[in-house]
C-alpha cells in the first residue's frame, strides 16, 4: 500500500460523517493500514496469515469483517472475534474493545511479552503497555503510538505511520 492510500484513510477520518462512514468503519480502515505499515518478526506468521483478533467488542468484530480475506504486504488477513478462553498471543493485531482501564490492563498482561500490535481506546491504554490508542480530538478520530513498547515487542512501525501519530512516552 502506498502512502497515498494511508493518507486517503486518514483524510477520510476528517470527513467520516460527510462520507457516510461510521466510527467503526474508520477504525477498521486504520487497522488495515496498520497491517500495511508494521513489520512483525518472521515467526509470528509462519503460514503467511495475519490474524486480527477482536476481544470485548463483537459489533466492531462484525464491522472489521470488511478486511477479512484482504492481503497486506503479501499476507492474508484473517479477522476473528475472540473471547476469554482464546489464546490472544496468536494474533498479530489485537483490538481490545473494552471501556475500562482495569479490564484492558488484564488483557494486555496476557500478551505482555508477545509481538502483538495491541490497539485500544481506554484513556490510559498506551501508558499501560498498549501499542496504539484511538482517541477523539475535535470530533476527529486520532491515534497515538507507544514507540518504546513497539520496540520492546520487536514490532517495526513505518516512519510514514509514525508521522501521523501522537507519540506517547511511557515507561515500560
What is the CATH domain class? Answer: Alpha Beta
- Class of secondary structure makeup: alpha/beta
The CATH topology is: Rossmann fold
Query: How is the biggest beta sheet arranged?
Result: 8 strands, mixed
The fraction of residues in strands falls at 25-35%
Number of DSSP-assigned strands = 10
What's the average pLDDT?
88
Helix share of residues? 25-40%
> From the structure provided, what is the oligomeric state, counting identical versus distinct chains?
single chain
Distance between the termini: 31 Å
- Total domains: 1
Write up this protein.
With 172 residues, the protein is α/β, with parallel strands linked by helices. It has a single domain, classed as Rossmann fold, CATH 3.40.50. It is built from 6 helices and 10 strands. It has helices at 3-14, 23-37, 58-64, 101-109, 147-152, 159-162; strands spanning 38-39, 49-55, 71-72, 75-82, 93-96, 117-120, 132-137, 140-145, 156-157, 166-167. Helix 1 packs antiparallel against helix 2. The termini are far apart. The model is unreliable at 1-15 (pLDDT under 50).
Amino acid at each position: 500500500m502506498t502512502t497515498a492510500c494511508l493518507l486517503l484513510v486518514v483524510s477520510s477520518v476528517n470527513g467520516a460523517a460527510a462520507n457516510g462512514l461510521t466510527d467503526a468503519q474508520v477504525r477498521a480502515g486504520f487497522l488495515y493500514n496498520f497491517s500495511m505499515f508494521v513489520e512483525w518478526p518472521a515467526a509470528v506468521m509462519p503460514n503467511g496469515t495475519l490474524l486480527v483478533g477482536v476481544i470485548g467488542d463483537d459489533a466492531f468484530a462484525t464491522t472489521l469483517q470488511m478486511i477479512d480475506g484482504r492481503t497486506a504486504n503479501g499476507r492474508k488477513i484473517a479477522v476473528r472475534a475472540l473471547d476469554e478462553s482464546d489464546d490472544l498471543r496468536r494474533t498479530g493485531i489485537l483490538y481490545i474493545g473494552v471501556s475500562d482501564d482495569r479490564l484492558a490492563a488484564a488483557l494486555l498482561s496476557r500478551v505482555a511479552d508477545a509481538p502483538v500490535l495491541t490497539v485500544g481506546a481506554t484513556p490510559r491504554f498506551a501508558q499501560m503497555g498498549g501499542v496504539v490508542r484511538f482517541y477523539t480530538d475535535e470530533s476527529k478520530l486520532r491515534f497515538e503510538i507507544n514507540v518504546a513498547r513497539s520496540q520492546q515487542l520487536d514490532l517495526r512501525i513505518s516512519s510514514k505511520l509514525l508521522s501521523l501519530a501522537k507519540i506517547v512516552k511511557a515507561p515500560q
